[in-house]
Amino acid sequence: MKTVVEMMRDGVHEDGIRRAGEILRKGGLVAFPTETVYGLGANALDPEASAKIYQAKGRPSDNPLIVHIADWESIGMITGELPAQAKLLSDAFWPGPLTMILKKSEAVPDTTTGGLKTVAVRMPDNAIARALILAGGGYVAAPSANTSGRPSPTTAQHVAEDMDGVIDMIIDGGAVSIGLESTIVDLTEGIPVILRPGYISQKMLSSVVGEVRMDRGLLIDDPSVHPKAPGMKYRHYAPRAPLFIVEGERSRVQEKINALTAAEAAAGRKAGVIAADETSGGYSHAVVRSVGSRGQELSIAQHLYAILREFDHMEVSVIYSESFETPQMGAAIMNRLMKAAGHQVIEV
Fold first, then answer.
1. pLDDT for 228 beyond 60
2. How far apart, in Å, are the Cα atoms of 303 and each of 219, 297, 336, 340, 347?
3. Which uninterrupted H or E stretch holds 39?
């Protein structure tokens, strides 16, 4: 299959959107930008099209997909029950990086929801994405546009690394603005529960609907358990080299990482280090990459996946990362890092 690349870095191109919409309506796959990461889109109401997403990504079929819509009115067709909290949250955060889990209607096939009786719904804050959704029929199932388990794509080039020759089209809308997947909140059990942290924090959600809980099952090790949201059950975002997070007092973290990288160098191997601007100059015997300043947490989110992918091209034997507990996005950043590291943490 030849993958067509449509350039839209300067905004929405109507002809390109029309061609992409035709692909979706005919059951094909189109990768497109959102404000979070690039998504791999298919017609959410077509079971065969949704199944193609799993095949293209090598994604387990019990890992549910998010249905993307372009307007509030569209939500009624795909949900069986709409709690008042959904309207409150949509008024506050849509379009934007928030996914809500609701009871699904019969219109949504089981292939889209991973066999669950709930549906994950989001309205992206990206003009290209919303134009494509409308052109493609109004309901686009779209996980991240990468091979399952790999770091999510934040540029069209990242998509091409994994998907060139596998999908019909990639829309290149430039680099994304956030860089981490949406917050997922479950509204099916009374008190809202965050199943995946993101840019929209627990505090922000609570300011709108009151009590909001963080799910204790963000890490699921039991293979018999069906995940309620993308990314809950399987290892995600992982570079090819083993990744370890080093946690503790800052100077001790730096000392420990330097000792570890020195040992790698002595053995003739190359190590990678992920650090902040404030500390990146203090490392040796390694390839060091900064994700940005600890005072600008959005910069950390924007660069994390790109740096994980960059290390894949450097043939490093191991990667050591600082920990990044930041005020709003710290839970999301560390959730992705922990997943990428397979929860391998070195305490100092």
1. no
2. 24, 10, 12, 14, 24
3. strand 39-43
Q: Which residue type does 107 have? A: A
How far is the C-alpha of 285 from the C-alpha of 308, rounded, in Å? 19
96 Ramachandran zone, left/alpha/beta (phi>0; psi -120 to 50) = left
Cβ contact 233:218 at 8 Å: no
DSSP string, 43-104: ETT-HHHHHHHHHHHT--TTSPPEEE-SSGGGHHHHEEE--HHHHHHHHHH-SSSEEEEEEE
Cβ(205)–Cβ(56) below 8 Å: no
For residue 172, what are its two tokens? 């290149």
Cβ neighbours for 339, distance < 8 A, ≥ 6 positions apart: 231, 235, 236, 237, 238
* Whether the predicted pLDDT of 230 surpasses 60: no
- Alpha-carbon 46 to chain mean position: 23
**Amino acid symbol at 123:** M
| Mean pLDDT (whole number) for 305-318 | 95
Please list, residue by residue across 199-223, b when 16 or more beta carbons sit within 10 angstroms of its beta carbon and e when fewer do: bbbbebbeeebeebeebeebeeeee
pLDDT band at 229 (very low <50, low <70, confident <90, very high): low
Query: If you average pLDDT over residues 177-203, what whole number do you get?
Result: 97
* Bridge partner list, 100: 121, 185
